[in-house]
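Contributing new records

If you add data, match the layout below exactly. Sequence lines come first and carry their own label; structure lines follow with theirs. Keep one chain per record. Anything else will be rejected by the validation script.
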Amino acid sequence: MSPSLPSPSASVGRRRVLGGLTAVAGTGLLAACGGGSKIGADQAPSAVPSFSGGDYKGPEVTLDYWNGFTGGDGPHMRAMVAAFNKQYAGRIQVRITTKQWSDFYPALPTAIAAGKGPDVAAMHVEWLSTFAARGTLLPLDDVVASLGLSENDFIPAVWKAGIWRDKRYSVPLDVHCLADYWNSRQLSRAGLKTAPTDRKGYEGALDELRKAGVAHPFWMPNKWPGHLMFMSLLWQFGGELYDAEGTSALWGSDAGLQALGWMRDQVDRGYSPGQVPQDGQYNAFKNNKVSFTWDGIWQINDLKDTAPNLKWGMSPVPVIGEKAAVWSSSHNFVITSQAARGDHKAEAAKVFIDHMSKQSAEWAKAGMIPARNSVRKDPAVAALPQVPLAKDPSVLHFLPPVPGIGDVQSASLELAVQKAVLGQSSPAAALKEGVATANKMLAANRKKYAQ
C-alpha cells in the first residue's frame, strides 16, 4: 500500500498495498536475485551521472516506471505521471506499467536482468534492503542531497530503512497504516457516537452491540490483514518482531502470546465467526454486517466509491495492550540497475523522482499519509481524514530493514497467526512452531545475503 475494488468478489485487490510482502514465498524471488551467491550492493552499477537538481539537459529519453497501484490510488499516480510527461514533453517521457504487488516483486529481478524491467519503481519500505543487498538498486544520496532532505523531516524508521551499507537507495513518498473502521449506525444502536479507544471500552462496546442485535460485531480474519493486526498488538504489549541484527525472531514472547491470545478470544467469545473467509470481514463491513474492522487507510476511497450508503467512521486502532502502536509501511521511489545501462536514463530517472517527491501533497488524495513531516503540516493535507493517524509518529511501527524479511514473515509469522485464529493450534504452540521456522530462515538469509 491503496485501493478501491472493482467488486466485492475482487476484493483481493485490497491486499495490493502490501501484497508483495506475502507473495514471494516459494516463487523463486531470491533465486532470481542471485540465489545463494554472495552478491552485494557494491557490485551494482555506479558509474552514472550525479544529480544536483535543476532541469534536465540531456537528449530525449523514455523511462519505464513500475508500480503496484492497481486500485483507487492508481488514477492519482497516473495523473501525476501524466503531469510530469506534459511538463517534460520532448525531453523525458515516462512509460508506466502497473502490476499487482504480488506479481511485481517476483518479476522485478528477472526483468531487470533481461533489460525488460523498470528504470524507476515504487517499492515498499520492507523490500528495500532485500533488493539493495542484491545489487538491484542504484544509490540515491545525490538526489536526497539536492532535495535538501534529512531525517529531521521524516519518521525515523522510514528514513533509516532506505539506507543499506551506508548508502541511500530510496526517497520515501508516503506512510500507510491500519485504522479502525466503524459502522456509525450500529454504534448508535449501542449508544455510542464513536469507537472506544481502549481495551475495556472496546470489549464493552462489543458486548453492547451483541445485545443490540449485531450477531458478530468484530470478525477476526485468519489471513489478510490478520498478521498486520497481530504485529500491531505485539508492539502494543511491548514486544518486538526481531532482534536488532535480524538474527532471531522475538514474536514468540509473552507479548506475542497476549496479542495472539486476544485475537483468538474474539472467536471464543462469539464476537467473530469461527472461520472468516479471505476478505470476508471487509465485505461484511461494507454490507452492514460488521460493526468494527481493522484495515488500511487506503480503504477510504474504496468505501466512498463502492459503499456510498454506508455510514462509517475511522479512528486509530484501539490500544488493547499497554501503549499505542500500529503496523505501518511506506512506498518509496527507487532507481534500478537497469537505468545505469542506458545513456542518460539514470539521470532522467533522478529528475523524475525529484519531481514526484515534491507531489506528496497531491498523492495524499489517494488516501496516503505524506512521509514528510513538513508536508503533513500543510493545512489542506492536515484536513484529510487519514493524516491525524500520524499525529504522533512514534506509534507507527515498521518491519525492520532485514534482507529477505518478507519470505520469513509469510512462511512463519503469518502461518502462526492463521493456525491460532482458526483454532488449529493454541496460540502458544503456533508461536513456538513459527519462531522455529523463522529462526532457520533468518540463519539461511544471513548466508544468502552475505551479512
